[in-house]
Structures are given as structure tokens and as C-alpha cells.
Amino acid sequence: MTFGLVSVPVSLFPAARSNRASLRMLGPDGQPLARKYFAEKTGKDLDADEVVRGYEVDKEKYVIVTDEELERLAPEKTRDIDLKQFVPAESIPPLYFERGYFLTPAAGSQKAYKLLAETMDKSGLAGIATFVMRGKEYLVAIFSDKGILRAETMRFADELRTPSDIGLPKKKEAPKATVTKFEKLISGKSKKQFSPTKLADKQTDSLLKLVKKKQAKRSNIVKVDEEADKDHKVVDLVQILKKSLGGKK
Amino acid sequence: MAARAIWKGELKLGTTKVPVKLYSAVQDRTVRFHILDDRAKKRVKQHMIDPDSGDEVPTEEIQKGYEIEPGRYVILTKEDLEKLQPPPSRDIEIVEFVPQAKISQQWYERPYYLGPDGDEKDYFALAEALQHKESEGIAHWVMRNKYYAGALRAVDDYLFLFTLRDANEVILADELTKPSGAAPTQKELAMAKQLVEMLQGEFNPKEYKDEYRERVMEFIEKKAKGHAPRLKAVKAKRQTAALDNVLAKSIESLRKEKRAA
Fold it and tell me: How many Å apart are CA A145 and CA A151, to the nearest integer?
């Protein structure tokens, strides 16, 4: 990441955990399954090095594009988040936000990292940049969140529809009395703070409850050899982030 | 062409109901590739296999399991999963309102336009009231057999419903600790402030274009015609100079740019 000529090497980590209720696909004996590509004609399974990426230019006519080509198409932007503009952090409408990542400083860049975080914190500004990662250009806003830098990827303006794209009716002046009625309803239910507990996922909760019940009854439990499942690891993102922010690998 | 509504519901504020239609506000423009079999240059299919034997497991034999500890799963049957589905409802229940900007960017997932379904008077009145109050509603609803939590907001006279991430999903900065290491000096902070202020502006989303998408499409077109251009390798760069020197140089070069403009 750069601002001006200052470069701040960083690592990106997702700022969200995966769904707690994610289920795995198991075979008839409870063995974890793997998803695999196969050639339709021969039925043969294909490994990662036996498949390529193709863009369909005509019916069943493809142009093959390699990872290297995708990377080389954006030499100046690849992996370089150049903060060319700073805007008031609260001025970006939520329509744009897509996904969050925490940024952690690479070894030796803690000072530059802190410098940027502290400067943004004091000014209430967010840095805006575009950069290319894994074959896609991202528009990002970088926020300082209690001294920790967080990137939010954003949608490009042409990825958001307008009311006329959708065919929504033109605004009609609403009667004052109706507006007042709604304003009163809003005031009556207003809270000062947002409480994330209001977002508890009931469905996940009931799924976890059912799992507990079945576990207690010892019904429908399968056990597989951990070795056979070594590619599947549950990661504790918070632990990884803490280590990385602490300057450890 | 007008978009098709993906769902119909009723905003419920106490006993007042406002019928609405839901439309996706997002139009994905990512360049879509297909995965091809390298030899045959044909599209591939996917299936589930038993990694030990390499044999395909047909869909009807696949079970779903929740991992309770490494290697131990509780099987959830089709019937179990059906029972977990919430009862269908058309209500978008607004449980409370909070001031705008109280919900951090991290929570927002996907925006939907709400359009009036029949009566337009209440729809635009609610949008106006939300804008006046600078408020955002916290909403709960059930759509396609799934519970959703979200935010109701008015933007430029129209109502939007955002899906918000689940409370347990988002990692908050509070859970983490600030990075360790040396702190910047007062001089560096003053220079960084000056630098950032020189780059300060208004957020104007139309200024940012997905140039890379255009470049990829152009390259594909050329390659389709058999004239793929040669592309240079990407080199990584490294900063070696001291922080205050780099800051001073940055400020100087921005000044020059401004003078030239």
C-alpha cells in the first residue's frame, strides 16, 4: 500500500468469519467428500493443472487466458494499493461496501503503518484506491479502525443500478401528515446505538441447538480418520490476525 | 428495460404496513470465465468424489454433516434441515431505528432497492421521514426459506433494504490489538497530515473506473483474432529510504503536480 511515495507493505486478512452453520458434504459412510472437475465426454477427473480459464467469444469457442497474462495486464496496479485520494470516512454510502479485510503490517513496516492509521484516525478520513488482485480490479476504501487499518472492497459505480434502470416510479410529494406519522413511528422506536445482537441468526442458532441435541442422544454421529481429512482445517482468524498484528508470522 | 422484482413483502412498523417489491441493486460486471479441460478445450463439470477411492458419490447418497470436533460429524438429515426452515412470511419487520452511520461499514452485505407495490404515498412518505430523521431501521424478514437481518435506509428519495452480516460473522477491531513496534514521531505525523490533506477530496464514485476489466476484454478480443500482445513481467518494488525523507519528497512532488496543473 502506498500514500504519496511512502510504501506500507501489508497483508490482507478477511474481517469476517465463515458461517458458523456451514455443513460438509459426506459420503454414505460419513467420509468427507471433495469437489472435483471432470471432463464430460470421457468422465475423467481433472487436476488443477489440467484445467484452464476460457472466455467464451462465440458459442463453444473460447479464448484461453492464463494467470500470468491476467497479472501482466495490470503491471502498475497489481498488488499495489495506491491511496490517491482521501475522503471523509462517513461520506461513503453503504451501497458501495462489499467485503472487509484487516490489514496487518509486514515486518519492518509497523512505523509507516501506524503513521497512516493515526493520521486517518485524527482527520476522520478514509483512503480510496483501486488495485488488482487475482484477476480482478477492486475499488477499496481504507479505514483506520481503532488504530488498525481495514480495507472495504467497494462496487464500482456502474455496478449499481439506478431507480430508472429498475423502472421505479418518479418521486411523488407525500402528504405532510403521512410523513409526520412515519417520523413519529421512527422516534418511538429509536435507539441511540446499534446493537449487533439484533443481527443474531436464528436459523444458525436452531441448527446448533439441534446438533447439540443429537450429540447428547449420540444419534447420527460419524467419526472419520483425521488423517484422511488433513486438507480440511478450521482456522481461527482472530488468532492469526493477533499474531500478524503483533509482528509474528 | 424495467427489472423484475425478486420478492414481494410488507414493511411492518408497529401496526402500519407498507407493501413493497424487492429488486437487486447490484449488477455484477466481472469478466466471467469458464473452466475448461486443457486438452479438449471443453467446459468441465463438477461432482463429489470420495478422496480415498477417487470414486464419484452420486447426489442421492450425499449426506450433510456438522463438524463438532476434528473428524467428528453430526449428520443432519433432509427432514432435519427442512424443519429448521422458518415459516414463510411476507413481513419485513422493523424492530428499531438507529442514527445513520452508527452501523459500521463491515456489516453491510448486499443492497436491494425497495419499490412501492401499489400504494406510492406511504412509500415516499416513509423514505422522506427516514431522510429527515437521518435514521436507519433494523429489519428482520424471511425470504426463500431463510431468515435475514438487515437495514432499511432511504437514499435519494428511494428505500433500500441491505442485508447485514450475522452478529457472529464480523470480526471487530475491539477483538484485536494494535500493532506493536516503534511509534511515528511528531514531525512525521505533521508531515503525514499535510500529505493526506493535499490528497483530500470528496467521494465521487464515478471517478473510479474498472480499467482492468476493459484491458482484459481488449486483450481477449485481440487474442481471439490471433494477435495477442506480448506482456511484460511485473516487478516488485521496495522502499529503503527513511520515512521522513520519503514524506518530504511526497509533499514536494505533489506541490509540483499542483503547480503544473
Answer: 10
Establish if A222 belongs to a structural domain.
Answer: no
Asked if A131 and A31 touch (Cβ cutoff 8 Å), the reply is no
Task: Please tell me if residue B248 touches chain A, with a CB cutoff of 8 Å.
Answer: no
- Whether B86 has its CB under 8 Å from any CB of chain A: the answer is yes
Can you give the residue range of the structural domain that contains A117?
Answer: 1-28+65-164+240-249
Chain B CB contacts of A248 below 8 Å:
none
The grid coordinates of residue A219 equal 444419534
Residues of A in contact with B27 (CB under 8 A): 158-161, 165
pLDDT at residue B65 tops 80:
yes
* Residue B147, strand partner residues: B142
How would residue A228 be classed by pLDDT, with cut points 50, 70 and 90? Answer: low
Q: Chain A partners of B132 at a C-beta cutoff of 8 Å?
A: 179, 183
Q: Start-end ranges of CATH 2.40.290.10 in chain B?
A: 7-27+85-164
How far the first Cα of chain A sits from its last, in Å, is 19
> For the whole model, what pTM was predicted?
0.89
Q: Determine how β-strand A148-154 pairs with β-strand A97-105.
A: antiparallel
* Cα A245 from Cα A145, distance rounded (Å): 13
φ, ψ for residue A120 (rounded to 5)? -70, -40
Which amino acid is located at A15 in the chain? A
- Which 8-state DSSP code applies to residue B42? E
The ipTM, to two decimals, is 0.89
Which residue among A35, A38, A246 sits closest to B180, beta carbon to beta carbon?
A246
Half-sphere exposure of A135 (CA within 13 A, CB side): 13
> What's the pLDDT band for B1 if we cut at 50, 70, 90?
low
Q: What is the pLDDT of residues A148-203, one digit of tens each?
A: 999 999 999 999 999 999 999 999 999 999 999 999 999 999 999 999 988 888 88
Q: Give the gap in angstroms from C-alpha A82 to the nearest C-alpha of chain B.
A: 12
Q: Which chain B residue's Cα is nearest to A103?
A: B179
d(CA A115, CA B188): 7
Residue with cell 511485473: B234
Q: Is residue A150 part of a domain?
A: yes
pLDDT band at A234 (very low <50, low <70, confident <90, very high): low
Tell if the CB–CB gap between A202 and B147 is shorter than 8 Å: yes
More confident residue, B235 or B233: B233
Q: Compute the radius of gyration of chain A from its Cα atoms.
A: 24
Which three three-digit cell numbers place residue A14?
478477511
A17 and B96 within 8 Å at the Cβ level: the answer is: no
CATH class of B7-27+85-164: mainly beta
